[in-house]
Amino acid sequence: MSGLLQALIFLLDAIAGFVAGVFLLRFIMQAARVSFSGPLGHFVISVTNWGVRPLRRVVPAFRSWDVSSLLAAYLVQLVFQGILLALIASAPLLAGADWLPHLLLASLRGLARVAVGLYIIALILQAVLSWVNPHSPIAGPVNQLTRPLLNPIRRFLPPIGGFDLSPLVAILLLQALLLVL
What we know:
The protein has about 180 residues and is mainly α. About 80% of the residues lie in helices and about 0% in strands. It has helices spanning about 5-30, 40-60, 65-90, 90-95, 100-130, 140-155, 165-180. Helix 1 crosses helix 5. The mean pLDDT is about 90.
């Protein structure tokens, strides 16, 4: 694979990961009942409305889950994986009918990787904010996002000497999950 093709794939991956990540963040924030009134919420709404609003006309919400945001994130990954398959795969692979399940599964795996990446970023952000500015406007929403992940770990690993090691354990577990994905 040429260096130019690798650079193109890297850029497309970064763009698709960001866009899918913001759609996925909107889904997770609504599922976790995080307020959209702060700066993070305004950013997420502003960046994702173009894709979520049209999908809401077709795809209804399921209970309190914003399925439109989740579907938009999946569609971004689907388009990226399709472009990736077209750039990398050989013509005989694209001619067969077995590329569609591969594409659907690769998109789902890509979406799972984006979700794990979001949680790793949120955990790192939470740790940094706890040291630098624990009363930042973004600290509350980040805490709400990470609490469901950290509470089970905190049951087994309570704070030691005033230090909460659960974010470190969570990041290590998420990194291991990324290796599997």
